[in-house]
From TrEMBL, chain A:
Homotrimer. The subunits circularize to form a toroid; DNA passes through its center. Replication factor C (RFC) is required to load the toroid on the DNA. PANTHER family: PROLIFERATING CELL NUCLEAR ANTIGEN (PTHR11352:SF0). This is DNA polymerase sliding clamp. Residues 124-243 form the Proliferating cell nuclear antigen PCNA C-terminal domain. The keyword DNA-binding applies.
């Protein structure tokens, strides 16, 4: 049995959007504690981890199930949510469907086909990072947009206590500098200077579900995967992205 | 020139 009620369908939509930007399909592992999912994108460059504790739901009841869904189909259904809709997710074990129900001015039901997506048993690897930056999503996404003007990859740097988003193209360059006392920065826990370069489109996709005032936790080392964490609608989203390395 | 590496390169 699995049944979960979410008070704001629109908020849950962000979680599905975040996953569907990077993944084609996902396996939600549900149990009495909540929902979790871990998956790598098809090119094995990015990892997505979603944790939604049962407390994030208005009502929640589940025993152990693996619920595999096509994210494109799920996303299209979630796009139909209205602003004040409640969302009910329930597993129909007989028909092998996930019922996605919007409750608002009317009750609208979708039955989403289940796929045999095996649960990945992936863990977010426990990497030790020298630097941890808490930054408002809005200014960080703006820095990525600036970088996007000059190249398709971007360098994230910690240099002399500053967090720098830097891009260099054949002709042009862009740079955003966040000092520790900047109003964009919540906190910086700096261990050492560091520098890693990343594909910009992945970074954009990973930060798309965040509202501009949401707080991103960015973990950064040198030529290491970047880890970006934030919360949406009581769900914890964690992304890992492999760097581009000089060859 | 930099090259995209995979996550698995870090988790061996």
């Amino acid at each position: 049995m699995f049944r979960a009620v979410i008070s704001e369908a629109k908020e849950f939509k962000k979680v599905i959007d975040a996953a569907s930007n990077l993944l084609d399909e996902i396996c939600f592992e549900v149990n009495e504690e909540g929902i979790k999912a871990r998956a790598m994108d098809p090119s094995h460059v990015a990892l997505v981890s979603i944790d939604i504790p049962k407390e994030a739901f208005e009502e929640y009841e589940a025993d152990v199930h693996d619920i595999g869904v096509d994210l494109e189909a799920f996303k299209k259904i979630m796009n139909r949510a209205k602003a004040k809709d409640k969302l009910i997710l329930e597993l129909d074990e007989e028909k092998n469907k996930l019922n996605v129900i919007f409750k608002g001015a009317a009750t609208r039901k979708f039955a989403l086909a289940l796929y045999d997506v095996s649960s990945s048993n992936l863990q977010v690897p426990d990497i030790e990072y020298p630097n941890e930056i808490l930054i408002k999503a809005g200014p960080f996404v703006d820095a990525l947009k600036d970088a996007d003007l000059v190249n398709d990859h971007v360098t994230l740097k910690v240099e002399d206590g500053k967090f720098i988003v830097y891009a260099k193209g054949d002709l042009n360059e862009s740079e955003t500098i966040f000092e520790e006392d900047s109003e964009s920065i919540i906190s910086m826990n700096i261990g050492e200077n560091a520098k890693s370069t990343f594909n910009l489109e992945y970074l954009r996709d990973m930060t798309k579900a965040a509202s501009s005032s949401d707080i991103l936790k960015i973990y950064l080392g040198t030529d290491m995967p970047v880890k970006i964490e934030y919360d949406v609608a009581g769900a914890n989203l964690t992304f890992l992205l492999a760097p581009r390395i000089e060859s | 020139k930099n090259k995209q590496v995979k996550l698995s390169d870090f988790f061996r």
